[in-house]
Amino acid sequence: MILVTGATGTVGRHVVQGLLDAGHAVRATTRDPASAGLPAGVDVVRAEPDTYPLAGVSAVFLNPAALPHGPATLLTRAAAHGVRRVVLLSSSSVLCEENPIGAHHLALEQQVRSTGLQWTLLRAGVFAANALEWADQIRAEGVVRAAYGQASHAPIDERDIAAVAVRALCDDSDALVNAAPLLTGPEPLTQADQARLIGDVLGRPVRFEELPPEVARQHMLDAGVPPLVADGLLDYHANAVNHPAEISPAVATITGRPPHTFTDWVSTHRAAFE
């Protein structure tokens, strides 16, 4: 049995399906089991880490976003119940010095390392799914307004993160034990490039309109983004301006297939932008 936290999230749903396809029993956590809409055969439980049923669980996929009070309780209980491995959805921001988001994820990584369990830290780069934050603007005006249009990233498809997670949860070899693979998409793209590619898929122009960082920050605050997160995101983008994103071979090496391109991802999510 494998426990998947945040099972209805962007990555979690694909992890659940991948585990089922590989023939594994899955226990999935969600805030509202009644509306989860997960496949038949999944043991769906409410997201209460103090009471997660861990008997018989061999591995845990840990999505910190599903544990707003932190993973300490779940990790302590997992060790006590004989869980063998923890796979943490972390962030490539841990590689950015003095970035508050990176510091947060480094602390989470340290908590997982200190359990004494086997661990894999999935240091995922910028999610392609972050582009969904632009969907309203694109539908209404065919524009993306944001700061740092020349910030270069290698957006990664959530399906590729999930595929690596499934390998890490299931593989009995030592290849991913106590490893921290950097996960990226296959190509460096600026934010302006991403807007253009969305337009290519839609068959109509989508332009990028540069915002001053302070204006972009206020927009994020108005949308409910905590100041520390807003500052961390802007710092992350600022550091990526005019610096081509690092491309990692990890997805292809671990899964045996190339990662999806950003155009692949947009084509899958085209309806969100139309």
From TrEMBL:
InterPro entries: Ergot_Alk_Oxidoreductase (IPR051604), NAD(P)-bd_dom (IPR016040), NAD(P)-bd_dom_sf (IPR036291)
Domain named NAD(P)-binding: residues: 6-170
Pfam families linked to this entry: NAD_binding_10
Superkingdom to which the source organism belongs: Bacteria
Protein name: Uncharacterized conserved protein YbjT, contains NAD(P)-binding and DUF2867 domains
